[in-house]
Amino acid sequence: MNKTLETEELDSTSRREFFKTTASVGTIAATSMLVPNTVLADDENIMHHVKWGTTLGHEVNKFPYGMPPLYEHNVVRRTSPLMSSAGDMHAAISMTPLADLSGIIVPNGLHFTRTHNGVAQVDPNKFRLMIHGLVEKPIVLTLDELKRYPSESRILFMECPSNSAAEWKGPQFGSLQMAKGMMSCAEWTGVRLKTILDELGLKPEAKWMLAEGSDGSEMSRTVPVEKVLDDAMIVWGQNGEALRNEQGYPVRLMLPGWEANLCVKWLKRLEFGDKPWYAKEETSKYTALTASGKAIQHFYANEVNSVITYPCPERDWTDLKKGDVVEIEGLAWTGHGTIKGVDISFDGGKNWVEAQLKGLVLPKAWTRFSYMHKYDGKPMLLQSRSYDDSDNVQPTVNQEKAVVGVEGVYHRNAIMTWKITDMGKVSNVQVRS
Amino acid sequence: MFKLDRKLTTIGMVLVAGVTFSVMTACAAESKDGAKESKKAAAETSNSATVGVYASKPGALDGGVTYPRENGIYTAYRYNTQSTKGVNPGRAATANEIKAWDLDALPDGSGLPEGEGSVELGDELYEAQCAVCHGEFGAGGSGYPQLSGGNMDKDENGVIITLKNQRVYGSTDAPKRTVGTYWPVATTLFTYIRDAMPYAHPKSLSNDETYAITAYILAQNEIEIDGEEMDDEYVLNKEKLAKVVLPNRDGFYPNIDGPNAIEDIRAFYADRAKNIGAGTRCMTDCKDPGGPDGKTPAAVMEIKYEMSDVTPPYAYDKTLPPKKKDENAHPGKEAYEANCVLCHKTDAMGAPAVGDKAAWDIVMKKGLDKVYHNTIHGINGMPAKGGTSLPDDKIKQMVDYMIEASK
């Protein structure tokens, strides 16, 4: 952020001068944090041949599995000791760099990751899936056998219910990535559980399904059969390739819109029963303690939510000058259905305007929103507020706090606020009583 | 509008002074327009939610909508409408296979294995295998979950009082979520320890050892079983574990037990505004309806203690990463790949292919000096220096590499 610091020190006049001289290389100014203070009018990148135009590129198959450009090496998942136990990174979380993404698909290497006993590496030849309990025909499947079921693909977001958990008592992280990056969105391919159960014969007394992982934590959760028969899937494909180890290779459970913890990774066993199991991750954890002293259990869907991804602390407005027209962009999502719209406030929530949705608008998927803004150089408190087709409107911090308190840890969906200074710097704040 | 005063920021937790917040204070009471707006918005929502391919139905268990699969379309997705009947991969699970994997236990104790273990043995095992992370006596302290030691006193409604703690940046105690104060069910403790602990060696404990450690942790939480205190000699088994009623057994909602469970859950999520918090779609002159008295001005809270310790550290520049030097790489390799590889990778161009031992044996019969000379001055179809303008010593390095790689 060197450049931010430098421009901070410039007075507004020299700042205007700065942008006048660099206007001809606007794309560079917009994408690089390292613009030299003076760029000559006759840009050497134009006036001379560039290196990559005068040398041989590398061979077509130098990387049999393609890699991102080396220049993008800072676009990575990040983690923090706060996202772990005692700094141990086996039961920890790494966050998606939301500010660097475009569209609604997260590349597999950047999908956020949460593990409870490290990232398991399952041998696909030894993988077995058992489905039993209250079914007429209990079965075991190899991976190849599982994949013989007819498949469907859906674009779905995955969000850890503790996304923004650090922010209940106040803002703590100075970046979009760490404040909201415990989520991703991908195209997932697999079989609907209903397709399998139609064949196995689910007994009428089956009310619940236990999903169990095969990793060291034997992560297990209880799922109501109603969800299983609606849109639950067992998935093996992630954006066209096999799931990454971090996402549960070779297969994970997918419960569209519901907390990612329920979408058990490294799936091993599904058992149908008539009572809930009270697994560890649905009792001691993943229950939201409210101010009443009682806790919400079986907290399923990730609520209607949104965040502005540009500007944000990582990609601020220090390179804008007054009068520039700029696109405000963000992501909205809801586990309750489909995003209907997003409102934007420049004054911390007093007045709102409607943003526009763009791109694919799919149920239980990230949805991009956009608003064209004429930058006037004044400070602002920028917020977004989404609403969905299930009559949910994203709450303010105070509205959520009034019902849940500040110790809930999970399912935080309060409106976020970026404070933007007159220099265009962006920081994470909260509007609250 | 408002003005941000940078000098006054972030000293306190709440930053009323940081903003002259006319915008927020102006809406101390819910504006009528705002209320109307949000009702209108809600009505719009309901209407359009039933239109088109997204035709949604309210009433999913989680309070959301369900989208029917009709006419080969599920929301925006098409799917194959042909019958899947007869797709029947896999084979029947054997009784032994089910027995091997079906190890879970329900709160009523069904599914628990035979076996037993004493508090005393549990103490030994705990000290040896658990205390390093969970602290002496389960008291926590090293960053891993605390297992015992919370205050279990209840209020007149049967709620554990300290679970109502609401922290304001360290000025009050956190609610302690230990086995004794928070966990609803003791069978979870047994299965979790057996399946997932010790952290680095999960599934290494026998059933007897697991009963012992479970007994020790319950004893540290002063749990009584059938009115009996758990002293050192107390031996836990499946019958006794099934009888444990943890203090916070009723501390969770919605109800998920019994014949009404599903309807109770549905009712809970149907009223999300009341139960989990909801916003309103006010568009102009909105007050923040969550303020404690509707009059307190909303304020801007800035980061007080920034968690900037992230890995890898924040960096956003688009520069090349520091080059990893391959210590073993031949000094001529890089230049070869930039200049010679086109013709010398295969013999298709008539040049000796790198890696082709026989071809290079023939070349080397001329002697190294001659090979250098030919390279620098050109031979057959190859121009002088292979068409480059590199210095002679660099050319020689490349030749050395090609010879080396063809041995």
From TrEMBL, chain A:
Gene3D superfamilies: 2.60.40.650, Oxidoreductase, molybdopterin-binding domain. Its cofactor is Mo-molybdopterin. Residues 116-276 form the Oxidoreductase molybdopterin-binding domain. GO terms for biological process: sulfur compound metabolic process. Pfam families: Mo-co_dimer (PF03404), Oxidored_molyb (PF00174). Coiled coil: none annotated. InterPro entries: Ig_E-set, MoCF_OxRdtse_dimer, Mopterin_OxRdtase_euk, OxRdtase_Mopterin-bd_dom, OxRdtase_Mopterin-bd_sf, Sulfite_DH_SoxC, TAT_signal. Keywords: Metal-binding, Molybdenum, Oxidoreductase. Residues 300-416 form the Moybdenum cofactor oxidoreductase dimerisation domain. GO terms for molecular function: heme binding; molybdenum ion binding; molybdopterin cofactor binding; sulfite oxidase activity. It comes from the Bacteria. This is Sulfur oxidation molybdopterin C protein. It comes from uncultured Sulfurovum sp.
From TrEMBL, chain B:
Gene3D superfamilies: Cytochrome c-like domain (1.10.760.10). One of its GO terms (molecular function) is iron ion binding. The keyword Iron applies. The keyword Iron applies. Keywords: Electron transport, Heme, Iron, Metal-binding, Signal, Transport. InterPro entries: Cyt_c-like_dom (IPR009056), Cyt_c-like_dom_sf (IPR036909), Cyt_CIE (IPR002323), Cytochrome_c-type_DH (IPR051459). Residues 117-221, 327-406 form the Cytochrome c domain. Residues 1-28 form the signal peptide. This is Membrane c-type cytochrome cy. It comes from uncultured Sulfurovum sp.
